[in-house]
Amino acid sequence: MKQQRPPILEHRRVKRGVMASESARERERERTRAHMLAAKKHVLVNPNNLLPTNSVGKPDFVKRGYYLDRPFNCKSCGVAQVWTETQQKWWYESAKGDVWTIAVLCRPCRKREQDRRNAARDVHFAGIADKGKNAA
Length: 136
Ligand SMILES: [Zn+2]
Description:
Elements: H1 5-40, H2 60-64, E1 70-73, E2 80-83, H3 85-94, H4 107-135
Antiparallel strand pairs: 1-2
The structure holds zinc ion.
Protein name: Zinc-ribbon domain containing protein
Pfam family, one: zf_Tbcl
InterPro entries: Zn-bnd_dom_prob
């Protein structure tokens, strides 16, 4: 039965084609799954909570859709620090920090900087109060 050969070959070719496209789909599924798994392990970005920005382009964390811990060295004392995903989410989404700003001070230095500012403000107000007393 010679006539049967061409249909078989055709069938095989089609089958190979189907398998190839299925493996491409499978690879795509695998990539999506890998991305979702990566995202699941991280703190997600909620773009609705971010401060609007006038700049063209988006920061990496917005494009990625989730935060990544950022190692850095404190600008003041030089100690190695990690700005964690949770801290970043808080800064950008709760404190409404500018999306282009990043942490530059370690926690103790930030605290010291804050205390210094508060102290300066207290001195300023004390000065005003004293002037008021002298005038009276
Ligand atoms: Zn420091």
